[in-house]
Amino acid sequence: MNRSRVTRLLQGAASMLVLAAGWQALSYVFPHYLFPPVQDIIVRTVEVLITPALLWDVILTALRIFGGLLGAFIFGAVLAMLMGQSRTAENFVSPVLTFFQGIPALSWVVFAIIWFKGIEFRVLFIMVMTTLPAFTFQILDAFRSMSKDLFEMTMSFRPSRWTLFRVLIVPTIVPGILTAWKVNLGNAARVVVVAELVGATGGVGYELLRQQQLFDMAGAMAWTLQLVIFVLVVQQAINAVEAWALRYRAVSERAL
Amino acid sequence: MNKADAVIRFNDVSKTFRRRDGRGDFVAVDHLSFAIAEGEIVAVLGKTGCGKSTMFNIVAGLTEASSGEVSVLGHHPFRDFDFFRGKIGIVFQNDRLMPWRSALDNVLLGLQILNIEPKQAEETARRWLERLGLSGHVDDYPHALSGGMRQRVSIARAFAVDPEILLCDEPFSALDEMTARDLRAEFVRLVRQSHKTAVFITHQINEAMEIGDRLMLFHRPARIAYEAQLKNLSGEAGRKNVQDEIMRQLIAEPAASETAA
Q: pTM for the complete prediction?
């Protein structure tokens, strides 16, 4: 592990310690039902991870996040390719997606509860509708950023449409796709909690609702940390994939 | 030359670009006619903006002529898309290497598009990289290569598909004179050895005289102002006459102003 990476990790850890120290200080001042001690939160967090029934709630939320993101990614990629190839398609689809983007996540939750019976389909619907516009526009932007020079060079060899897609379009849009996943992951984690809070049994959002009803701040923090840890882990995984996929990129020695 | 035998034939070709700012259409190629025979190396010379690259793009099938007849190997280069697979190799002004592919994989691109058997394709690609002095850099990404090396890779990529026609659009203009000189010599050697038909765009008189069997000087908008056979020039005197005539034509060219239709 190189020095700059170690430095970054140490600085990140230090800032987390400062945050924890601040919280601990507050726990000495305020009642524990408002600011539980850090050690209590840690114990409850670990308890979730080692208790199969509770861990299943974390896994369920994770699966819902992945399912929603995957659905939005697939639909978004198809729409983006259509819009990229056809001005007419873009003129029809873009205003609809922009309209969808303006609808708050909570509204989609209400629509889903009214329209659909099944809990999992409701959550999937909410996840897809809230992240579809961002995926579509980000992939479309990546497609549009394709170099005209590289396009002409590739076309000079007269490839079939599939070959053109494989050798040029996919490598061009991969960086945009990875960025879209990273951006939408955080969004999806927030949305899924709202969806589970209101319309599901099981999952992190549902457990948060239970902690609120029990007035259990340590429990609420513990379940929140599950989601935070999950997002951090997945983002690191995406970063690792990105580092491998984009290993061809030059990096200046002056880069931060 | 009998135009019917020409490998590349332009007959009264014009190309007009529509401008969005209401200044009228822009004529890039103006009733251009010429023919290039099989195995001929033709250097196309002219000032920047005279339409050389537009003519080049029409031959390459990257843009379509607005009017006139264009024929390359007896086919329309823009409309007969699939016919030209593997038949035209292009070296552009900038290397246009795919940054996510290594030098070897960039050379392999055309061979993969032609569905050449992978082992044979790799052998061909490696052979071309070796011929161009890059056998030690096959796994390097373009960012790790110098400008001259990248242009060598792009030359290898064009030759690897064994095209019938080579099109080169100022391929050495972005390089320093020493590197350009070495690559130019290498390029001429490769083209002559393989007896390919080549069209070489340049704005340098010396480069045109060094490379071409024939030279066409374009005035803006692309039309032939002067043509010369370079193969049988009588020594230095002959070369000087041609150079002087080129200079005279360049000086006599009307002042640069956009031609509006």
A: 0.84
